[in-house]
Amino acid sequence: MKPRHMVFGGLVLLLLLSVPVLAFRSQRAAPPIGAVVQTWTYDPTHNPPLVTVKIVNNSHKDITAFNISIKETYANGHVDKHEVLEEFLGKIIAVKEAQGTAHEADFRTYYGDGTLHAGAVWDEKLPVQPDLTDYQAVVDVVAYVDGTAESTNDDALGRIVEERQATAASKKIVTEVIQTALADANDTAPEMTAARKMQDRATVWKAQRHTKLDLDDHYLQSIAKELKALSSRNVNKRDTLNQILNREKLRMSISAVHESLVKTGVPQ
């Protein structure tokens, strides 16, 4: 039988047992938002020590992202507070891209349709330092497939929106740069022209100071790297570049509904 949290006045008292893996179950009567930490287990024998946080979707909608606020306490008195974001949007896009291909079945075996379905459970495996004595984890932001969100941590919600919109802005740059390169019929290497422009945009952006994340330079660099690799392949460069353009347009279309999350009321 798994040992349980004992909750008094919001303080969590751990039942410390001399077993290699400890398990704890949340005693929260009603989750503040549509996902909650159901249980967590601590394995000090893993290298490094590992906590597995079991998240359950208690809502009636599929989840596309959630944020966990964590407080770790160690035997020497050290306390580490941090947050973990689980973002499913990349998986959602990958599954959509795989539709109708030979890889679709494999993608769906691993990812389903990319979301955390209503009623489903997700195991978040997180490394910790040795000699953990207390672990508190709370899901404080949930983003849903319909573009809504619930939050008791608006800073974290803002970061999710900011990162999604920065990636969207980068996809827009990718499509515009490729279209411009393809439009020049005299360019014998449009893939290299597009790659250089994307790399230049990423380099200039990184050299500037920013008050918010408004571009994903890693995304630009990854597409630039893909286009540079294309230049050495024995394929029709323009046809392949058009395929990449269509792929990026599809990604933009899929992610559009998820870019601006509308916060809804938190259930009481």
List keywords for this structure.
268 residues; Immunoglobulin-like; 2 domains; 28% strand; elongated; disordered N terminus
Helix-strand blueprint:
Elements: E1 6-8, E2 11-13, E3 22-25, E4 35-43, E5 50-57, E6 63-74, E7 79-87, H1 89-98, H2 104-111, E8 121-127, E9 132-144, E10 148-151, H3 154-183, H4 190-207, H5 217-230, H6 237-255, E11 262-263
Parallel strand pairs: 10-11
Antiparallel strand pairs: 1-2, 3-4, 4-5, 5-8, 6-7, 6-9, 9-10
Protein model, in words:
- Helix 3 (154-183) runs parallel beside helix 5.
- The chain has 2 domains: 6-152, Immunoglobulin-like (Sandwich); 159-258.
- The protein has a 5-stranded mixed sheet. Strands 3-4-5-8 form a 4-stranded antiparallel sheet, with no helix packed on it.
- The chain contains 6 helices and 11 strands.
- By secondary structure, the protein is of the alpha+beta class.
- The model is unreliable at 1-31 (pLDDT under 50).
- The protein is elongated, with a radius of gyration of 22 Å.
